[in-house]
Amino acid sequence: MIKTPILIVGAGPTGLMLSAQLHRYSAPHTIIDRKEGITTLSKALAVQARTLEQYRQLGIADAATREGFVAQNVRFLIKGRSRALIQFGEIGAGLSPYPYLFILEQARNEALLRDYIVSRRGSVGWSTELVDVRKNGTGYAGTLKRSDGNTEEFECQYLVGCGGAHSPVRHFLDMPFKGGTNEQHFFVADVTIELNVEKQGLLLAINQKEFLGFFPMSGDNQYRVIGILPPSVKDPADFPFDALAAHIHEVLDIPAKITGHAWYSGYRVHHRITDSFQSGNAFLAGDAAHIHSPAGGQGMNTGLGDAVNLGWKLAAVVNGWADAKILASYNEERRPFGVQLVHTTDRAFGVMVSPSWAARQFRTRVLPVLLGAVLKFKPLRRMMFRTISQTRISYRGSSLSDGSGSSALRSGDRFPWFEWDGGNSFNWLSDVGYVMLRLGQAVGVNIPGWSGPVVHVAVTGSAADAAVRAGLPANGVVIVRPDMHVAKVITH
Q1: Last residue of a domain, which of 346, 364, 390?
Q2: Is 368 part of any domain?
Q3: Do the domain assignments include residue 477?
Q4: Measured torsion, CA atoms of residues 378, 384, 385, 389, in degrees rounded to the nearest 10
Q5: d(CA 204, CA 86)
Q6: Could you tell me the residue range of the domain that residue 466 belongs to?
Q7: Could you write out the DSSP letters of every residue in 273-292?
Q8: Both 449 and 332 in a single domain?
Q9: Could you count the other beta carbons within 10 Å of the beta carbon of residue 456?
């Protein structure tokens, strides 16, 4: 019999991040997955700035940035001709310590999180499947099945489904997964291809009817390619790579040579979200709670954000630092963002794949010019970065946010990144617990409903000057939650 306060079902990026967060707070838990180990496929590629900021709290951001690389630009190849080269560079300069578009394959992200868990003397129960779950007096009980056929009973107080779109937790608890599915069949392929184009960023190859997206990977001449399956493919579940290679060459319409491929697959794009991310003492996170198109590289990052948000709250309850009612704020904070993301990514993806005349004209004529124009203006460039990077996410409407603050900084907002000679604001947020920043003559205050660790920081000198420029009060207190969002702003 396994008895654990928290059982995490699913050890993809979301489940691994949740386990890492719980280890950071020394909260006991168990994590299982039916797979034999971390994925060997690249799957998701984009790692947004907010994810790297969260990795920074775990101490693994430097390892991530050493392994991946920055996408410097996007090139538009229209009907075989290079029509626009739009530079991204550090489009978020001054907004984050990671002001760029970053590429790191999912397998490497999972490895970093797994290694962190191991470094904290934790482990993952691989080759273990959830085959039954039922409510009991204090939480949930059920049966786990190993790959060798042996079974074991479990009991837990809190159950978290991180098992992807086919989440067994969501299935057993009968939580609706509403939405729809795009009509077209798409493909994804990791290929080795020789292109007469510098490998510095993204490549969009577009003609009147088709589009291909080339996303650079860390290996020489390696790209992730996505697009619509060609009409010659009758069975999206079974087709030869030669048919796909011929389609890629046709749409590219430039000299290119595909010399190999790691994997490829046909798929359909779904857009679905659960009515709630919580049911009693059970929670859903990542693709178990919301799935959407790959537009904008948001999927993996959103799941990781779910895990960070839920992780500190579960740890607080299990460790006795906060009342269990804090857990309701997980759904309050993460589901609205999930709804917005499902809708916006679906609309964007629809424009890229629509066969309509208007959509074709937008892809081939308007989009390259529009994107180039946006990046020329600093306010628009910063807004674009904050949206894509997920540094714009705010929880102002949460029950944990009291509405305090100013026009520049309010409770629920992400705590801002800023620097001064010899320091930066995120160094204050490295330790476990709430952070209380005191500026001017202000003195500390109690944090209602919290008995866990509190880090006290007196902000003085050049740090205080930089803080005021970033929107913090010259004389007051700013309380920051463990997930780097502002809890309260007090101005004296």
Answers
A1: 346
A2: no
A3: yes
A4: 170
A5: 11
A6: 419-491
A7: EES-SEETTEEE-GGGTEE-
A8: no
A9: 10
Q: Which of 302, 319, 346 is the last residue of a domain?
A: 346
Same domain for 337 and 472, yes or no, is: no
Q: How many helices (H) and strands (E) does the chain have?
A: 12, 26
Instruction: Give the number of domains in the chain.
Output: 2
Place of tokens 């003195």: 443
Q: Is residue 400 part of a domain?
A: no
- Same domain, yes or no: 8 and 129: yes
CATH number assigned to the domain comprising residue 482: 3.40.30
* CA distance between the termini of the chain: 55
> pLDDT digit of tens for each residue in the chain (492 aa)?
999 999 999 999 999 999 999 999 999 999 999 999 998 876 788 999 999 999 999 999 999 999 998 999 888 888 888 878 888 889 999 999 999 999 999 999 999 999 999 999 999 999 999 999 999 988 999 999 999 999 999 999 999 999 998 999 999 999 999 888 777 788 889 999 998 888 888 888 887 677 888 988 878 889 989 888 888 888 888 889 999 999 999 888 888 999 999 888 888 778 899 999 999 999 999 999 999 877 677 889 999 999 999 999 999 999 999 999 999 999 999 999 999 888 787 676 666 667 777 777 777 777 777 877 777 888 888 998 999 999 999 999 999 999 999 888 999 999 999 999 989 999 999 999 999 999 999 998 999 999 999 999 999 999 999 999 999 999 999 999 999 999 999 998
Copy the structure tokens of residue 414: 């992400």
0.85 exceeded by the pTM?
yes
Smallest CA-to-CA distance from 463 within 408, 414, 422, 409 is with 422
Confirm whether 148 is domain-assigned. yes
